[in-house]
Amino acid sequence: MIVGFLSSVGYAEVKKKVDSFDGSITITSEQRGDGRPLARINFIKARTSDGVSIYKLALFRIGGLCFFERVPLRMKIKEEIYNLPIVSTSGEYLTSDFYITYGTWIVSEEMKERILKADSITIRVNHRQQASTTLKIPSKMLDEWKQVIREKF
To answer: What is the extent of the structural domain holding 29?
Structure first.
C-alpha cells in the first residue's frame, strides 16, 4: 500500500471552460504533483448541452504499465467509507517508455453533499499490477473541490 500526501503539489487552479459549439460548461480543480503517487487529480463539475450536471473525479498516473482496476474508488470521510462508481479507465504510451494511465469515477449528489461537509478525505484506488494507492487529500485541494461544487455555471 502506498500512502501519499500531495504536499508537493506543482500547481493548482480552478478553470472554467465553455464549449462554444454546444454550450456545455466544465469547471475543474486541477492539481498537478510530481507523479508520486499520482501525476494529476481533477475534480470536475460539468453541465452538458442538455442541462444535466455531472460531477467526476479523474486520476492520472505516469510511469510504467500500471492500470487502474475497473472497480469503485473508495472515499473515506470521517470514519465512513463510500464507493464511487468507475466510469472509465484507459492508458496510452506518450513515448516508447513513458506511459500514462487515467481513470474517472462518478461523484453522486449525495457524495457531493458529503464532500461539502467534510473536514478531511482519504481516497483509495486499486491498480491491476500493484498494491492500491491510498491518498489523504490535502486541505487546500479539498477547499478547491468545495469551490468547484459551489461555483455557478
So the answer is: 2-150
What global pTM score does this model have?
0.87
Find where cell 479539498 sits. 142
User: Residue 78, SS3?
Assistant: coil
* Residue whose C-alpha cell reads 481533477 in the numeric block: 42
Q: Give the CATH number, domain containing residue 58.
A: 2.60.40
Buried b (16+ CB within 10 A) or exposed e, 27-38: bbbbbbbeeebb
**Tens digits of residue pLDDT in 82-126:** 999 999 999 888 887 778 889 999 999 999 999 999 999 999 999
Instruction: Quickly tell me which residue has 493548482 as its cell.
Output: 12
Q: What residues does 127 pair with on adjacent strands? A: 68
